[in-house]
């Protein structure tokens, strides 16, 4: 069974940093592209960032480019999101998502974790 | 355009057919994928590559596409289909991924 477990969400002040992690199991982690998708309270889904199976290609939403960095450690079956210069607008539930295929721009988001909550507030 | 537009809310009588649409310029080049999200739960993929269902998704869910509009059709809607539905695709450049704003489906 595919499992994705996010961690690292917290209450942080504007301008501070936070690192999210996602542990994958039940599948061959380095065969698949991975994504971060967020959902602000009561709002819709927003794609944040994606990374290829071998970190060879990465994409970011314009709203986070230059502030967030996605990475993965295939030896640890883990996905990360380093979030810097956080803003109140970044407040959301952050989902870790496994793509259907190996590339980050595969829009078939096959498996989702349960999310980790990031709250940016003073 | 780099947006995907969905109607905010749609309703359907129990057992009837409902169509949920997603409009965007990029849909003339890229397929839409559809997700169902129930309250307090993570989204679930229901349709991909225009009209393919992952295993476990009932065959009352189907997809179609025409021009810049993708559609998700539920034939014989059930009470458990009441949820938010989101489409996603690439933007016109192919280098960003997009979600539609979501459609809240009410089954009456």
Can you give keywords for this protein?
heterodimer; A: 122 residues; mainly beta; seven-stranded mixed beta sheet; four-stranded antiparallel beta sheet; 49% strand; globular; B: 108 residues; six-stranded mixed beta sheet; three-stranded antiparallel beta sheet; 44% strand
The biggest beta sheet of chain A reads:
7 strands, mixed
Low-pLDDT residue intervals, each spanning 5 or more residues of chain B: none
- The DSSP helix count of chain A reads 0
Rounded to an integer in angstroms, the radius of gyration calculated over CA atoms of chain B is 13 Å
As an assembly, this protein is: heterodimer
Sequence of secondary-structure elements of chain B: EEEEEEEEE
Distance between the termini of chain B: 34 Å
- Approximately what portion of the residues of chain A adopt beta-strand conformation? over 45%
- What sort of overall outline of chain A do the alpha carbons produce when their principal axes are compared? globular
Folded structure, characterized:
The complex is a heterodimer of chains A (122) and B (108). Chain A is 0% helix and 49% strand. Chain A has 122 residues and is mainly β. In chain A, strands 2, 4, 5, 6, 9, 10 and 11 form a seven-stranded mixed beta sheet that branches. Chain A has a four-stranded antiparallel beta sheet with strand order 1-3-8-7, with no helix packed on it. In chain A, strand 4 and strand 5 form a beta hairpin. Chain A is globular. The N and C termini of chain A lie far apart (40 Å). Chain B is built from no helices and nine strands. The mean pLDDT of chain B is 94. Chain A binds chain B through residues 35, 37, 44-47, 50, 59, 61-62, 95, 100, 105, 107-110, 112-115, and chain B through 30-31, 33, 35, 37, 42-45, 48-49, 54, 84, 86, 88-90, 94-102.
